[in-house]
Amino acid sequence: MAGGYRQQPGASSGEIRKDGKRVAGKQKFPPPGSGGSRPTMAQRDLDFIPESVGGKEPQPAGSHIHDRYRTGTEVGKPRALVDSHAKVTGQAWYGDDVRLSNEIIGKILRSPHHYAKIKSIDTSKVEALPGVLAVATGADAANTFGVLPVTKDEHAMAVEKVRHVGDLVACVAAVDEATAMEALNLFEIEWEVLDPVFDPRKGLEDQDEPIHWRGKYHVGTTNVQKRVFQEFGDRSLVADPTASSHGKWRMEGVHHGFTEPHAVVAHWDPNGRLQLYTPQQVPHYAHRALSTVLEVPMHQINVIRTFVGGGFGGKSDPFPHEMCAAILSRKAGRPVRINFTREEVYWINRGRHPSYIEVKMTADEEARISGFDIDALIDGGGFASFGHVTSYYNGVLATAPYELGSFHYTGARVWTNKPASGAMRGHGAVNTRCAVEVGLDEMAEQMQVDPIDLRLANLLPPHSRTISGFRITSNGMREALERVREGSDWDTKFRQMPLGKGIGIGCGFFISGSGLPIHWDPNRFPHATVHIQIDMDGGVTVHTGAADIGQGSTTAVAQVVSEVLALPIEMIHVRSHESDTSPVDLGSYSSRVTFMNANAAIRAALDIREKLLNAAWEMLGYHPDVLVLNDRRIYYKHDPAVGVSYLQALHKAQEDKGSLISSGAYRSPPMGGVHKGAAAGLAPAYSFSAYVAEVDVDVETGLVSCTNVWAAHDCGKALNPLAVEGQIIGSCHMGLGQVLSEKMVYGRTGHLQNPNLLEYKIPSVHEMPHVTPIIVESSDPEGPFGAKEAGEGPLLPILPAVVNAVYDAIGVRIRELPLTPDVVWKAISAKTRSLGGIDETELPTPRLEHSTLQATLVARGQEHKERDRRRQRSEDTSAYVNGVLFGFDPDRPLEDQVDGWKSAVEPVPEQLAELGLAGKAWLKKEQRQMGGDQ
Amino acid sequence: MMLMPPFNLHHPKTVEEACELAATFLANEESFDWVAGGTDLLPNYKWHINVKTHVISLANIPGLDIISMHEIGAMARLGALTTSENVHPLIASAASKVASSLIRNNATLGGNICLDTRCFWLNQSEDWRRSIDWCHKEDCGTGSDCRVIPNQNTLCVATYQGDLAPSLMVLEGTIHIIGPNGPRSLPVEEFFQLDGITRNVLQEGEFVLKVTFPENVANRSGSYKKLRVRESWDFPEAGVASSWIPGDLSSLRVASTALESIPRSHHEEVDALGNSFSKEHISQLSEKIMKSIKPVNNTALPPRYRKSMVRVLAKRSLREILGD
């Protein structure tokens, strides 16, 4: 086989013509599957093979079950994303790049009213306009849909009433955009205008006409869409606290601000199948919803995910305009394209919920956190979207990384006549996390201890359970805190800088893949499936349904397949765009893709690997256990000269079978408690992060600028450190927008005042601080090669880090986001007035004089550090549950050893004595309890 | 993407030809707009705000883009102003704070002076404005009320957010206008007039030709302070420019922008301090300027805050030129 394959006859070394061109048909042709440019096998890259299997890659967090499949090919190396060439050369095809022959343009008629009943729609004038080819209204699509099966409350177009300005009323398709726009003015609609609700606090009250009706489960006649009550632990610990913090927050709604506005093309092909092109994060849910709304079986629909120009959660709902395009196309018999303007993007929204959050917390005499009491009232806008989940996340994702004596949460999501809120990067966790971390800062100040030491002495260890029963596996929280402390030179800066300069800390905790799939399936359908196919050319085609929304999921899949098979990454071709060819994947949400999809890909690749090794065994006579895969070659471990090329082994394996095909799947293990809502926030792994931010505050204008950020994130194992750093820096930017300048402004009349990118103020490059990304690798036992998420978690800590830094700079606690200059200035003015009208430049800044508790915390932190190290490396495998810090025996159920220890998800009257805003939702009865709607 | 509404674009080659075109449209009662860089007009057109049948571009008239210490043509690009060595540093500095570098490459001095007034009830799409039943400035024939200050149908309070005007004022610039009825010129501070609809003294058919400065302008030192949330893109939420000939307090000029429907020169406040004015009075003067302006709630930041910031901006601007 020396010399490899030669597919075409010709000169051996790429003969060149006199005019400098290569001789056609005679160019040097690499053997198929050789990987192209490298003719010989590369050396094994021991720097990227773990210590546990004889390499040189250090493993401070211990070995991993996938170590023996490491070949040193791709994992852990900084790699440009595999689709980056298409993007930087402008050849990536986004939603608006799809052009089908004969296509026509669809436009949507939107509600001019906040809340109104549609008494009649007359479309006769629209239909009569020359150039109009199809018109549709709510009457054309009666079935409801929604991303969560429990809250399907959306229609393609308004059926009975419109619920916010910009809600879809009707749509029209015409030969060109101008005609379609002209047609929109010809609809004749009779409205009955209803009284709108904008303030979520009003949404808790009984209304004449609630925005939606949930039948027997409706809470009174309010606009409460979902209410949550949870109480865990021993509430008696809260009494007589050494320190306490009580903060009431107002957080504005923010939008994802992705680059690409929504765009969709629908086309019913000659066989009557729907081909729908859409930039979707979750093509599978769009697929399901289309099937329901159009009343067409799923197999007659092909959802084609275009490149996605940013999603961040904003493209993960099935959208009404996708239905509209399909309906119009079916009527017109031609492909229909609908492109959004930026304003329409804001009207479909699904951004972060505007929130009222109240956090009370206490610490005991040993500076242990004896209780969190959280109340979150979130403004859902006109539809449910992901809100059911968001209502839980606002509470339950605050149960870690700290060990708590007790946890109390009341949450409510209400409908208002505004564009619907939904899932956005850091879904549900961001706002409460900010409130909690700022509370800890306040308690640290009361106790005069360092806030980092306070945290280090109260962390849950690796392999433990949170107070609500989440299973924590790997945990790099401690290392993250230590590294930002060191990187930022914290100990010489905190509480020591002059007025106007400040430094602050914040931590984060996030799910790495939602443990229960949204479409719960009794048949244990996997969360992710990956198919691999290799034909005689040796190229590896990977089919996955995972939606690359710019986060690099395609690259991650290519990398792990490349790693397992020891093939150069250019030999791996990922196909993920069409539902016709992609196995079902539950989508790019809840930071699940790398964890679940890469795990599925590893399994599929292992199947292929086994087939290749068996073929090599047959050819070489050595058992696979003593064979090594390295760069397109399989050889005997003790004599590398004895081996076969990848292609030889492949062709042997293909004898009588043809293409090698395999399928791998991932399904998360059973875990967590059994209480109502226990599934919300359950994940096979969790990510941890800690940020230190440095700010400059202009005390006269209130302008805050963030200058430096040290950002440590525990992603388990960075499969691609370049991508992880990109996610960290990008998260910083997005979180910084929410904390400093971004807000959806609903004015006096309830209209969204800034639906454009000039007035919706995403930070520019000038506002971007210098970010030092720090990757912490805790090697998750179930993650692919130890990896966990890095896409959402890194956003969380930037908010509290900045808010705490502002306090360090000016000594004023602000609990209103974003910290626009007017908000900061108002707070400064109030402070100077309260100090007898001093000048802003004379504001006193907070200082730290360590109390005796500081030494206690440092000692406990040291002790816990050793505990954590042993647990992380499985030297200590004893059980650990939240509460051990308070003296409980981890091997006995807590209820049995402590009288006051509770686990409640329905309130009893005495728990409703002191209520926050959202808690008031529990004062109402459901219709079925009222003898109303049964 | 938003669809541009149709209009007829005209490219006169000389100033005279431009005036003739305007005269013809006026005679035929056809509506038209002037366009220079288009960075203000065209976004408004896409929002269907005040779209005209004809648009006359000044881009092909040679000589209008002159840049010198004493004369700047209406078609001088802001990007060129920021990099030119032959322009007053105050102008260069103010121009460099306008929007973003991409926009500055197209935007012009004339366009920035004649910037349309802005208001969050107005600078929105047609659908959006329909949902509030329009407003006084662009009532679409409905006689709608002002949405900022309801129950008054006489005044538009849209805010003028041009960055350059106050600097031109404090440098004692003269604006040169031309139209079918011939040329005229007047001090920049007299150019701006009345409310958010009228905006300035331009008669129909007239356009700005250039701005000139006095002989001694190079002796002036100046400073422009701009309040904005982001260091790029954003229009000013408040802006204060000041200038003087060092050593000569009687030459002190202060002007503000982005606070009301027109930019304002603060002669009165400066004069009120009389001859006794010295560096120690900076706070006093800043306070007086702050009290003289009345912003309304139609930009990104609340009016009370913007008003308070005038004091800070004025103080900083004055300190910069007068020394601490």
What does this structure look like?
The complex is a heterodimer of chains A (934) and B (324). Among the domains of chain A are: 95-194 and 261-308 and 315-348, Aldehyde Oxidoreductase, domain 3, CATH 3.90.1170; 518-666, 2-Layer Sandwich (Aldehyde Oxidoreductase, domain 4). Helices cover 24% and strands 21% of the residues of chain A. Chain A contains 19 helices and 30 strands. In chain A, the strands form seven sheets. Chain A has a seven-stranded mixed β-sheet with strand order 3-5-1-12-9-10-11, with helices on both faces. Chain A has a seven-stranded mixed β-sheet with strand order 29-8-13-14-15-7-30. A four-stranded mixed β-sheet of chain A has the order 18-26-27-28, with helices on both faces. In chain A, strand 10, helix 4 and strand 11 (301-305) form a beta-alpha-beta unit. With 324 residues, chain B is of the alpha+beta class.
The overall strand count of chain A is: 30
The order of strands across the largest sheet of chain A is 3-5-1-12-9-10-11
Largest sheet of chain B: 4 strands, antiparallel
Q: Give the total of beta strands of chain B.
A: 11
Terminus-to-terminus distance of chain A: 78 Å
Named CATH topology of the domain at 95-194 and 261-308 and 315-348 in chain A? Aldehyde Oxidoreductase, domain 3
In angstroms, what is the radius of gyration of chain A?
29 Å
Secondary structure class of chain B reads alpha+beta
Topology:
The complex is a heterodimer of chains A (934) and B (324).
Chain A: H1 84-88, E1 104-110, E2 116-122, H2 124-128, E3 132-137, E4 161-162, E5 168-174, H3 177-184, E6 188-193, E7 224-234, E8 243-251, E9 263-268, E10 274-278, H4 283-294, E11 301-305, H5 320-332, E12 336-339, H6 342-348, E13 355-363, E14 369-381, H7 387-396, E15 406-415, H8 430-447, H9 451-456, E16 464-465, E17 471-472, H10 477-487, H11 490-493, E18 501-511, E19 528-534, E20 540-544, H12 553-565, E21 572-575, H13 593-620, E22 627-630, E23 633-636, E24 639-645, H14 646-653, E25 660-666, E26 686-697, E27 704-714, H15 721-740, E28 770-776, H16 798-810, E29 816-817, H17 821-834, H18 852-872, H19 894-897, E30 901-904
Parallel strand pairs in A: 1-12, 8-29, 10-11, 14-15, 20-21, 27-28
Antiparallel strand pairs in A: 1-5, 2-4, 2-6, 3-5, 7-15, 7-30, 8-13, 9-10, 9-12, 13-14, 16-17, 18-26, 19-20, 19-25, 22-23, 23-24, 26-27
Chain B: E1 8-10, H1 15-27, E2 32-35, H2 41-46, E3 54-57, E4 71-73, H3 78-83, H4 89-96, H5 101-106, H6 109-113, H7 126-131, H8 165-170, E5 174-178, E6 184-187, H9 188-191, E7 207-212, E8 221-227, E9 238-245, E10 248-257, E11 264-265, H10 267-272, H11 282-292, H12 303-322
Parallel strand pairs in B: 1-3, 2-3
Antiparallel strand pairs in B: 4-7, 5-6, 5-7, 8-9, 9-10, 10-11
Helix pairs in contact in B: 11-12
